[in-house]
Write a structure and sequence with these properties.
150 residues, alpha+beta, Jelly Rolls, four-stranded antiparallel β-sheet, 4 helices, 10 strands, 35% helix, cNMP-bd_dom_sf
Length: 150
């Protein structure tokens, strides 16, 4: 795919929506394209998270392993991002990910992403606002569910 196609894909991903064309171009230039056949594991639960993935095409199952059994906890498709927090901080994968169909992925490098945030503080501020809003929304949803678990 052409660089402009990669920029278009990244522009549609929530975490990058506030990025300028120049910032998206830098990010797209540093991505790695990967293809995985159906049934192939993309990453394991508990593995070190050093990058994020954008699903370009295909379907991915997110799963947790319990007592030797894989329990699917979600499914995502084109335009979705996996592991976006790995772009910001060190951590571990909370789920495993497996290609349900043949998938094409963009692998996003943490170092490049962080360099963009340093070079473009306005992008970092907008990202901070977005993450704060997302976290607030998640906490509100948890509070609404809390009575069901009391």
């Amino acid at each position: 795919m052409a660089l402009d196609d990669d920029i278009g894909i990244l522009a549609g991903v929530g975490i990058f929506r506030e990025f300028t064309q120049d910032q998206l171009r830098l990010l797209a230039f540093g991505t790695e394209r990967l293809r995985r056949p159906a049934g192939k594991e993309i990453y394991r639960e508990g593995a070190a998270a050093d990058c994020a993935f954008v699903v370009v095409e295909g379907k991915v199952a997110l799963f947790r392993e319990r007592e030797g059994e894989r329990i699917v906890v979600g499914r995502i498709g084109a335009g979705s991002v996996m592991g976006e927090l790995a772009l910001i901080t060190n951590g571990y994968r909370l789920t495993g990910a497996m290609a349900e169909t043949e998938v094409e992925l963009m692998r996003l490098n943490r170092g490049l992403f962080q360099r963009i945030l340093v070079e473009y503080p306005d992008a970092a501020a907008k990202l901070h606002q977005r993450l704060s809003a997302d976290l607030t929304g998640m906490l509100e949803r948890i509070e609404r569910l809390a009575p069901k678990f009391s």
